[in-house]
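Continuing the batch. This is chain 6 of the set; chains 1 through 5 are on the previous pages. Same settings as before, nothing changed between runs. Recording input and output for traceability.
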Amino acid sequence: EGLLFTDFYSANPLCSPARAALMSGRLPIRNGFYSTNAHARNAYTPQTMVGGIHQYEQLLPALLKKADYKSKIIGKWHLGHRQQFLPLNRGFDEFFGSGNCHFGPYDDVHQPNIPVYKNDRMVGRYYTNFTIVKGTGQSNLSQIFLREGLSFIEAQHSAGNPFFLYWTPDATHGPTYASPMFHGKSIRGRYGDAVMEMDYAVGQILQKLKDLGIDKDTFVFFTSDNGAATYSKAKAGDNGPFVCGKETTYEGGMREPGVAWWPGTIPGGKITHQLGTIMDLFTTSLTIAGVKPPIDRIIDGLDLSPVLMQPSELIDRPVWYYRGNEMMAVRVGAYKAHYWLWTEFGNDPTYFSFCQGQLIPNVTVHDQVNHTAAPVVFNINMDPGERYMLPAHSHEYKAAMAVIEPIVKQHKDTLVRGEPSLNYCDNAVMNWAPPGCEELGYCLDGPPSKPKLCYWDH
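Output for chain 6:
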């Protein structure tokens, strides 16, 4: 029914920076969602994280208010769990979910369980109030998230409001879970159960739009924040022909599913090879809503609405692959140039956790290898698995680099890095006493503040 993007990318191979890019339309290196504690390390927002999305970043829901949109996020936020960073303080009108992932259970003494919010108040915690049976992988959370989404759509339609729903369930993130309706139904185990339930829920949301007669007035996009976690082996997803996965800047870490749906406007059953990124959803959504993007800063997201309406049209653009504070690679057209190669630290040259079962000499590597002087180039259209380097002396290599080099130079020369948000951790800022804990009698005593530099080994 929609338009399939075969070449759609996240903005980072890890959850938090990718979501910050989606909400701001800007690379994490610009919006500050990275760390300078070590070179090229992925960082995110565990509950020890002091920082969050900067106040000076203009986020999508706040900008949509200019066109009177009502907005809601359901599921995982992950852009900072402290009160000043939570969704209602960053432009959203409603929130049901958590500021962190559903890790746990914890003992509420050495580490608190993660709070679940309804708007700006905690209404319980994962495991203790919102059940996740870690041993069996059973939980009704996906059904709760679905009901929240359907009721929001109904309420906004009844009120005659334009709306933005950011529906971001996390059942497919370890520890995976599914409701009794789907538990044990997939031959792919718990992960497959979670995917089946997500598929069902997306179908229910689309059907609700049809039932209300607003499907032809609604733009829907389905994607992910990073590649499958290959380190979880058969208990997680599969990146198909792409090498490696989550945490890496190979294709398997950042190339994502991308499906656009808008009956009557976007042609159904079509495929586009347009290079797209999750940051484009920021700019494209603003264009659809009739809101101009900020002009006082660089916005990396493109307006893809011309491609959505006419899939044969293609817009030239680079795709940047950042890992922490380093530009690891860039793709321009069919060619991807790796300026740095690094998979993960380790001593066994035949084993890579982030690339289970994959070993490509001089590509999957344990050391951070600087190829800036002579980037490693692949023709991604011909070689999506990044197995066959173009010979540096070949005409194809030289022609590709003649196009890529000036684009990279301009990018680096004009880059203004945001102040890094993900450098400091402190046990005192964990979710000991979130807003609303008083009403529930579920406030916990935390330790004194002892901020320190966060350690990132990936």
